[in-house]
Amino acid sequence: NVLVAANQESEYVIDRNLHLLTALDIRVKEPDFQIPPNPIAQRRMQHWLTQHGIQPGEYIVLVPFCSHENKEWAQANFTELSTQLANKGQKNIFLCGPGHQKKIEVLLPQNCKASVFMSPETTIAEMVELFRFSKMVIGGDTGPIQIAGALGLPTIAFFGPTNPKRTHPWGDYRILEIHSTPQEVMDAVGR
Predict the structure, then answer these.
(1) From the DSSP assignment, how many helices (H) and strands (E) are in the chain?
(2) At what angle do helices 182-190 and 75-87 cross, to 10 degrees?
């Protein structure tokens, strides 16, 4: 076994881990996260979008929950952001993972029902396909944001206790502090 020296040029976890491949004489500058479509999950999400009159590419996905509450943006902020997006004509979908339905129902703005939706409870494959059809994903420092980045989607990620230089999403991302206001997020969406 050979000890591979850590990549001292980058704090980013992906860069540091890719550097380990140099021991195999493999050099990767830009990883290609090929996440192939899942036909069954894709059909289910396409059907759900069609039922709700939502076209691929016209919505933003909001991911309000993380595995650790100290990584979550304030829930009231998600409600306000959703309202502001809807008032600008931007459809948005709250991602509903297992067991989140009642928590998300509380977050849904009541005056924007034509533009704000709650996804069905999704499997990981269905979440990937819902993301794949979206124009952007917004959420905390959580796995779904990492998956959105790996899919090549623009992401806005809220960071609190963890270092964004170390664990930011891949690709086209914007980092905001966990104490950012909904207006600051709207400004970032508009960029």
Answers:
(1) 8, 6
(2) 50
Q: Which two tokens stand for residue 159?
A: 């960071």
In this prediction the pTM is: 0.88
Residue 166 CA to residue 85 CA, distance in Å, equals: 30
| CA–CA separation, 161 and 95 (whole Å) | 23
Query: Residue 5's pLDDT band (boundaries 50, 70, 90)?
Result: confident
Q: How is residue 94 written in tokens?
A: 């709250």
Residue with tokens 């830009």: 30
Contacts of 135 (CB under 8 A, 6+ apart): 57, 58, 59, 60, 153, 154
Neighbours of 115 (CB within 10 A): 19
How would you classify residue 39: left for phi > 0, otherwise alpha for psi between -120 and 50, otherwise beta?
Answer: alpha
CA–CA separation, 176 and 173 (whole Å): 10
Instruction: Count the residues in the chain.
Output: 191
**Tens-place pLDDT, residues 141-178:** 999 999 999 999 999 999 888 888 878 888 888 888 98
Strand order from edge to edge, sheet including 173-177: 116-121, 91-96, 59-63, 136-140, 155-159, 173-177
